[in-house]
Each structure stands twice: as structure tokens, then as C-alpha cells.
UniProtKB/TrEMBL annotation:
Known function: Catalyzes the conversion of acetate into acetyl-CoA (AcCoA), an essential intermediate at the junction of anabolic and catabolic pathways. AcsA undergoes a two-step reaction. In the first half reaction, AcsA combines acetate with ATP to form acetyl-adenylate (AcAMP) intermediate. In the second half reaction, it can then transfer the acetyl group from AcAMP to the sulfhydryl group of CoA, forming the product AcCoA.
Keywords: Acetylation, ATP-binding, Ligase, Magnesium, Metal-binding, Nucleotide-binding
Gene3D superfamilies membership: 3.30.300.30, N-terminal domain of ligase-like (3.40.50.12780)
Name of encoding gene: acs
Chain positions with N6-acetyllysine modification: 624
Protein name: Acetyl-coenzyme A synthetase
HAMAP family listed in its UniProt record: Ac_CoA_synth
Reactions catalysed: acetate + ATP + CoA = acetyl-CoA + AMP + diphosphate
Enzyme class: ligase
Residues annotated for Mg(2+) binding in this entry: 549, 551, 554
GO MF entries: acetate-CoA ligase activity; AMP binding; ATP binding; metal ion binding
Amino acid sequence: MSTIDSVLTENRVFPPADAFVGQANISGRAAYDAMCAEATNDPENFWARLARENLSWATPFTRTLDESQAPFYKWFDDGTLNVSWNCLDRHLENGNADKTAIIFERDDGTSERVTYRALHARVAQFANGIAALGYKKGDRAIIYLPMSIEAVVAMQACARLGVIHSVVFGGFSAKSLQERIADVGATLVITADEQVRGGKTIPLKPAVDEAFSMGGCDAVTNVIVYRRTGGNVAWNEGRDRWMHDVTAGQPETAPAVPVEAEHPLFILYTSGSTGKPKGVQHASAGFLLWAQLTVKWTFDLKPDDVFWCTADVGWITGHTYIAYGPLAAGATQVIFEGVPTYPNAGRFWDMIARHKVSIFYTAPTAIRSLIKAADNQPDHHPDKYDLSSLRLIGSVGEPINPEAWMWYYKNVGGERCPIVDTWWQTETGGHMITPLPGVTPLKPGSCTLPLPGIAAAIVDETGGDVELGKGGFLVVKRPWPAMIRTIWGDPERFKKSYYPEELGGTYYLAGDGANRDTDGYFWIMGRIDDVLNVSGHRLGTMEVESALVAHPLVAEAAVVGRPDDLTGEAVVAFVVLKQERPDGEEAKAIAKTLREWVGREIGPIAKPKEIRFGDNLPKTRSGKIMRRLLRVVAKGETVTQDVSTLENPAILDQLGKAL
Ligand code: WT7
């Protein structure tokens, strides 16, 4: 059954257990309703109260929201604070210095614990080290590191100085790295010799060297290298330095530079429907507030919890729910270097048991692959492990199909743990629509209701409200503190992408289609633009197309998504070569070459699952590629739509056949 079909027939409801409600940070529907009412009636006071109660300010703010330049909203803008101080120093002052901040588990199963005191010292030393190299507030640093304590240290050290970081996922290619270094105008790059995943080492520093060789990186004066494996790396004297040399001899305390609330904390690149990935810019105070609050609200964090978010710090989930939120909230968290299936499919469950994880947050794609793996490796089925420490489990990144939800609920959550299916985006900074575990009756496949203060709604193409039960565009009608501030270097694109005139120009357009049922629950139906969601990662079809046409053999390419049981969506590419259409072994060989090419241009996640060759692409008489038809063809279905506007209808038969 397809996700959409099963979602629309889903009618199971799982109310929260009384025991959970009794102890929850937000407890019961009345408490939620009261918060929503406060936020609706007087949003400025609502947010101001939360910002005063939850953050430590260097200079208290007096202005809550400045809408004068909307949609370039400013929050708390005459206040100053330091994000790293809020994540570290204040826990030392609160008597939590010896609390474990991070349990880091390496790929090989060994682990290490770091207290808040020790983490603070390491961040201070590294901050002092990069300050000694001349880095200061407003500079931009690219971070290209594996999952590690050092990744958190690097991010926090930047925040401590007001250096704006841009983390690039370690799975992205040298080319993607180079584009980001150049676009953000980085003067510092922080990387590692190699990363270790699933028993294999994967080079990182060589990708940095390759990025430099492509040009556009001249502003970078230092490349700091964390020695993870001791593997051989080329060395550029004068530019490259080891991380341990940068920190050696540095004091274990460092000033936390107060920055304006709106000072950019980071820029994180994400795919859009057109052109190059966009640099989503987040502000310091608003982002931090929401990161901390949602950890307490959605995850119901308590002092004794052990929190584990399995995301990579290269994605927004790793920013909000590893590098900042849990630390701001004073949590103990697990950080994992490796992959869920190494050394076997029980790795996650074994880690939950060993570290007594109580809150577990992962992606549907991981759940789906572990369902399959548990079938193949019955010895590593979750029921072979002691998962009794869990009290709450979460999902993020893509719609979770009800079947996977039920498996997760039964086999991992023991029918005892609420599942928080959290809808949000790189641009939203933190959770937006999600169950509150002590409030919301759960429906498998629904992200349920907006958090207090989040004015989510569904509208039609003119911005008008649609009635419950009818689908439409997911929007947010009022600004919120953690929202994207702009696209780095391209404010016009920010306005056009997220605040389109067609909807009136005042609603944030998420880019997702959604439905609301008669209980007001949101059901996300997927992207409405040319953005794919592959294993919970966003990928622009245009990005993959540009990568393909950059290959000397390719004349033209069209890329679409196809539903996939494992990855949610899979990339299917239709390619016209400059030479004659290949078939047989030749076609297979060229397809392989092109897949690898895309892997090098963007990263392995962008490799098309399938490539089909045609003499042409289905186009209208005006030359527009009909992707709608290609989506049907990619699924192996017969086109039943009207094709009379097509210049060359016969091409559909040719493209309908797999290699
Ligand atoms: C897109 C955002 C949120 C952090 C990770 C992804 C999809 C995200 C859900 C969910 C259905 C979801 C949306 C959204 N998405 N969470 N719980 N249910 N869809 O961040 O890379 O910025 O992608 O992921 O389509 O727009 P991202």
C-alpha cells in the first residue's frame, strides 16, 4: 500500500499514558491550549517571557520583534548574549560541572565520556587557539568533520567568538565543499585526516585539498586538521595545522564574546528547487531559544535523561539537536561516529542498552532499513536487547509510513514510549509541528499539531484558508524566533522562495503539501517543488540535472523522484547523450560512469538509483520538459494523462523501459 493511501485510511489513535502525562514538562491538553492561547493573544509577550526565562543574556533585550523590514524579521535585537556561554558556562555555575555532557561512541565500539567542565575546557582551548590565529566575530569558518566530540568543540568554539560556522556534511564531495567555501567567503576550514564509518576509513583532508585546487578558496588562510586516524595526508606548510597544535598550551578558560541577538550563528546549505544550494542563515538568540525549548517540550527532557539523536552534525538536525539544543538544556547525550548496521543490525539497540538511552531520535529511513535488517538478522532484532531505558522515541526528516511507525512503536518503544513525529526544516531551526508527549494522542503517520507559538496553516494557491480535510500548501502565518533570517548573499531569493507575492507575501511558504483532518491534525504529503527527499536528505532535481549535463557525454537530462520502500524517494534520471542512444552493455557502462560522476559532483547520496537513455525527452511544443509524465514513467506505470500537448508522445514508450 502506498504511503498516501495508508495515511488516508489510518484511524488508530494512541492517547498518552497517564503516567507520562503526570510527569511531563507540558502536561495535558489544557496546558497546551493555554500556551497556544497566550501565544495567539499576545505573541510578543509570549516570546519575550520565554526568552527571558530560558536564556542568559549579557545585555537584556527591550524589543521583542521588529517587523519593520518584514519578511526580514528581527528578534530580541537590542539584546546581546553568547551561545556557547549558554550551552556550557551556565551549567558550571549551576552545579552541573561534573555532569556528563557527551558520551561519544566510536565506530569500533569504544567510548568516552566528557563532562560539562571538560567540554567547556576543550571549547575554551580551541577558541583561544583560533583567536590566536586572528579569527574574530563575523569571520566565516567551514567545518568538514566526522561525527566527533571535536565537531561539537569546533562549532561551540566558533560560537564562543562570534565566528559564523558553516558545517558541510562529510559525505559531500570536494566540489560541493569548494562551492560552499567560496559562497560563504570562508577564511578558516576545520577538517579531519579521515573519518571512520562501518569499519572503513574515508578520507576528508584530501577533499579539502582538491577543493582548493578548484579555485575560489584563496580567502582561506588556515586549514585546521583533527587527527582522527593518523592516516597519511598531504601537508601544505604555512596553511595546514593540526588541531592538537592549535590548542596546545592554550588556557582552559576563554572569554565568551557577547554578540547581538541577530548576529548569524551559522549558515547551513540546503537544496532548493532552482540553482545552487542556498545558504540558510540563522540568528544567535532566536535559534538558541527554540533549540533549548523544543528539547524540553518535544523531548520532555529531565535532568537524568540520556538523549540520543542519530543525525549527523552536517544536517540541521545535528545542529539543533546535537550541537546546541541538548547542551543549552544541560542534557547528557550520546554522539555516535558510525553507522546503524555495523558491526550488525543491532548496533543502535545495543547502544541504547549499554548507555541506558532514555530518549531516542532517528529518521524513518533508518527505521525502514533496520526493519529489513532485523528480518535478515533475527539475532539482532530489537527484541534481543534490553530497551527498557527508553521512555520516548522520535522521528524526523520525512513522512513515516504507518507500517514503519507501528514497528517502531512496538519493537523499539515497547508500546510504552510515545513517538514524536517532528515536522520541521533546515529553515525553521527547530520543531514546528509535532506531538507533545504529555499532551497529544498519536496517529501513526501524522506529525499532529503545531507547537505553541507556531501559526501553521494550510492555504490554497492564493493564500486563502482551506477547509479541514482539503489539501494545500503548508505555511506559517506568523514569524517565530528560530526562523531563517535570509539566504546568505541573496536576500531577493529569500523573499521569492519563502514569502511569495502570490500568497500575499506575509506567509512563510514551507514547500510541502499537507492535509489536515477533522481533529486539526497535519498530514505531510511531501514537497510541492522540485525538491526530492532521499533518505531524509533534501536534493534539488535541478542540482542533479546540472551535475549530469556537466559530463561531456550528456546533452540533456531530466531528474524526477520515484517512491522507494527504503529511501522514501529515489532519484531517477532520464538522459539524452550527445552520441546515439546506447543500449545493452554499453548503456549499463555509461549509466555506471554517470552515477559515479554525480557522486563526485555532489556526493554519494545524489547518485541516481536508475538512469534511462532516450533519443529525446518528453517536451511541450514550447520546449518545456514534462516532468509530470516522467514521474509516471519512472514508476513503471502507463501514462493515462492527456499527452496531446507533447511534441513527441512516442518518446514515452522508449523511456518507459528500464535498462
Ligand atoms: C523537509 C525538510 C527537519 C530536519 C531534517 C530535514 C521533510 C521533515 C518531516 C516529518 C514529513 C518531513 C519535509 C520538509 N520532513 N520532517 N516529520 N514528516 N516530512 O530537514 O533537509 O531541511 O528537509 O523534510 O518535506 O520540507 P530538511
